[in-house]
Amino acid sequence: MALKVKFSTDKSPKTGTLVLVVSADGKWGTLAKELDKQTGGQLSKAAKAADFKGKRDADLQIAVPENTTLARIVLFGAGDPDDLDSYKLELIGGKIAGLLKGLKINSAAIYTDIVGKSSVDAAQTAAFIGSGARLRIYDFDQYKTKKKTPAKEKLASITVLTSAATAARKAYIDLEAIAVGVHMARDLVNEPANILTPPEFAARAKALSELGVKVQILSEKQMEKLGMGSLLSVGKGSIHPSSLAIMRWDGGPKSQKPVAFVGKGVTFDTGGISLKPGANMWDMKGDMGGAACVTGLMAAIAGRKAKANVIGVIGLVENMPDAKATRPGDVVTSMSGQTIAVLNTDAEGRLVLADALWYTQQKFKPQFMVNLATLTGAILVALGSEHAGLFSNNDELSERLHDLGQKTGEKVWRLPLAKEYDKMIDSDIADMKNIGGRFAGSITAAQFLQRHVNDVPWAHLDIAGTAMGSPKTAINQSWSSGWGVRLLDRLVAEHYEK
Ligand code: BES
Ligand code: ZN
Ligand code: ZN
Predict the structure, then answer these.
(1) What are the φ/ψ torsions at residue 74 (nearest 5 degrees)?
(2) Helix (H, G, I), strand (E, B), or coil: what is residue 479?
(3) Are 18 and 73 a contacting pair, CB within 8 Å?
(4) Residue of minimum CA distance from atom 22 in ligand 1
(5) 174 CB under 6 A from ligand 1?
(6) What string of pLDDT tens digits covers the 498 residues of the chain?
(7) Helices (H), 419-466
(8) Is 441 in the pocket of ligand 1 (CB under 6 A)?
(9) Looking at ligand 1, which residue's alpha carbon is closest to its atom 5?
(10) What's the rounded Cα separation, in Å, for the pair 140 and 183?
């Protein structure tokens, strides 16, 4: 169950656990000061004794504080107030939620009026701390038949206490919609591939119509007609039919060209006939992380009723070995009319995206296209899990993504595209081959995508290192991160919703 986040101006909470967020400059907010007085200085004395100075993420718990009916007061450090921004506040909210979860309590209050000159006001502070907690509290436990945490030990709601409750509640509406999108992306990536088949994924995309998203599913037959021989070649060994899901949110003026997001949705990647080794192959259930992000993003965009026209396109296929599967060496023709020698059936993501990108560009003439894909193991070698790889034909779009990456914590690092790399995918017998050789594997994959993009501003995000299996953070403790939803929602909000 999703964490419920409420906002209140209550100045004297009476029961349960109360977290007081305090900054490192020694100044406490009104409620913190009042409670210190009420408890006969117990809070400040405890802080002094424990050397608690409000350093970021430091905490101090005071059980059954004197002269109150509270069960517990927790002092939580926000660090230097000048240093706080929206992402750091979300991390603080996440940390607090983790702490509360550990206490096995059902609900708690968090007082967030941090004193000091911070660039974020009281309402924003409260809303972002609430958002961090909301993002953090996430379980994917529907397949556990035993040992579920009893309801009363599960953190179900928090009340954020702030002098600016009305404004905070308003600011939180959008953040809640974004969190819904992030959790949806995490769910999709966590789902095992026997459940989340291409048709099941398409059905979940279709369900976004409840939010007002227009959803169209192209069948194999329709894709054949369009000439999508590249995408279709990937799913040939699967018993599940491939599809292309097109999601559309028309929140902007009719005259405005849409922005488009395109995702790789390989619901399982065995490698096909170029079969992967067995070790850790299970994690290829997450090879639809790009499509999951696009779907979660559309949920966020629709959930907060964004004033923009946004298209999401996801290519849904399963890559299996079979008598019907594509063989290494087979030549296929993409919708662009170009021919591809499939030298390695495990380099399948680019085959899916080639047709999805071409279709999106031709059909919607978007202002820009951003695609996301768990495309190459090589991006993990280059960047680990700290940054997603960014490849682009457009400096402005790249800079925006880089800047917002820093601001949301979903960071990207740009790598080069160049004709010398492009040459590496020339083929002897076809227009191109789908692998470039031993070196620069992430770049040659990006070059392959670029051959299916014309002049439209385009960015490719290689999220093989960030979509799943990345280190746990204060706002995510799950194997799947939901990476990209917050970044791309912000891209739309800050640059395309005027
Ligand atoms: N889905 C994989 C990439 C991947 C690897 C994602 C690790 C997440 C974690 C992709 O389809 C793939 O197999 N790529 C090959 C390309 C190679 C055959 C040129 C790779 O990276 O080894
Ligand atoms: Zn593969
Ligand atoms: Zn793959």
Answers:
(1) -115, 120
(2) coil
(3) yes
(4) 377
(5) no
(6) 899 999 999 999 999 999 999 999 888 999 999 999 999 999 999 999 999 999 999 999 999 999 999 999 999 999 999 999 999 999 999 999 999 999 999 999 999 999 887 778 999 999 999 999 999 999 999 999 987 788 899 999 999 999 999 999 999 999 999 999 999 999 999 999 999 999 999 999 999 999 999 999 999 999 999 999 999 999 999 999 999 999 999 999 999 999 999 999 999 999 999 999 999 999 999 999 999 999 999 999 999 999 999 999 999 999 999 999 999 999 999 999 999 999 999 999 999 999 999 999 999 999 999 999 999 999 999 999 999 999 999 999 999 999 999 999 999 999 999 999 999 999 999 999 999 999 999 999 999 999 999 999 999 999 999 999 999 999 999 999 999 999 999 999 999 997
(7) 419-423, 441-450
(8) yes
(9) 377
(10) 10
The beta strands (E) that lie in 270-368 are given as 309-319, 330-333, 339-342
Q: Locate 231 and state its tokens.
A: 């995408």
The backbone region for 54, taken as left when phi is positive above 0, alpha when psi lies in -120 to 50, beta otherwise, is: left
Residue 118 CA to residue 22 CA, distance in Å, equals 12
* Catalytic residue list contains 350: yes
For residue 286, give the nearest of 379, 395, 188, 155 by alpha carbon: 188
Instruction: Give residue for tokens 């398409």.
Output: 202
344 lines ligand 1 (CB under 6 A): yes
Query: 257, 276, 307, 414: which one is catalytic?
Result: 276
Paired tokens of 273: 């006939």
At 200, which amino acid appears? Answer: E
Active-site pick, 169, 350, 433, 486: 350
Residue 269 CA: nearest ligand 1 atom is 1
Ligand 1 contact, 273 CB (< 6 A): no
Q: How far apart are the C-alpha atoms of 94 and 97, rounded to whole Å? A: 5
Query: How far apart are the two ends of the chain, measured CA to CA in Å?
Result: 34
CA-nearest of 44, 82, 88, 81 to 62 is 44
**Strands (DSSP E) found in 239-342:** 243-250, 259-269, 309-319, 330-333, 339-342
Query: Is 135 near ligand 1, meaning CB less than 6 Å away?
Result: no
State the pTM of this model. 0.98
Axis crossing angle, helix 485-495 with helix 289-303, rounded to the nearest 10: 40
C-alpha of residue 60 to centroid of ligand 2, in Å: 48
Active site residue 169: no
